[in-house]
Amino acid sequence: MTSEDAEQGNSSARENYQDILVPTDGSNESQQAAERGIEIAAALDATVHALSVVEGSATLKRDQLRVNAEQEAEKSVDQVVDEAERMGVDVVTAVELGIPHETINEYALENDVDMIVMGTHGRTGLDHVLIGSIAERVVRTSPVPVLTVRPSE
């Protein structure tokens, strides 16, 4: 492969991957995945979409626990914004109510996302022994490629 071929390949990737979705729940694992997504976005001159999904429905929104969950979701999105800005990457943010895997996939479709970068594990504990149940569902049903990032030891 010549350097011209490599440059042409990078150019093609830059054109194909302009919007990268980084779902986050604020956990260390999702933050590691966000950092990887931001690195990829920086290399491709792409925009990062930081999304945090609060489980539940709009009818639960008035519940105090839901307000706390929304505040935590905003914090987790802000962490991604801080890292993206540090790396000079454009970032779009969203906090949405819903079923996480469904909301992630809907967001990807509605916002013409080209790739999802997410952790294999999140906050929900034992559900995530091998691969996170949310990550697994996103991988199986996503309309776009998904890169999963395992947590570092």
Automatic annotation (TrEMBL):
Ranges of residues in domain UspA: 17-150
UniProt xrefs under Pfam families: Usp
Listed SUPFAM superfamilies: Adenine nucleotide alpha hydrolases-like
Superkingdom of origin organism: Archaea
Ranges for region Disordered: 1-34
PANTHER family: STRESS RESPONSE PROTEIN NHAX, UNIVERSAL STRESS PROTEIN UP12
Family from the record: Belongs to the universal stress protein A family.
Protein name (record): Universal stress protein
Source organism of this protein record: Natronococcus pandeyae
Lineage, top ranks: Archaea, Methanobacteriati, Methanobacteriota, Stenosarchaea group, Halobacteria
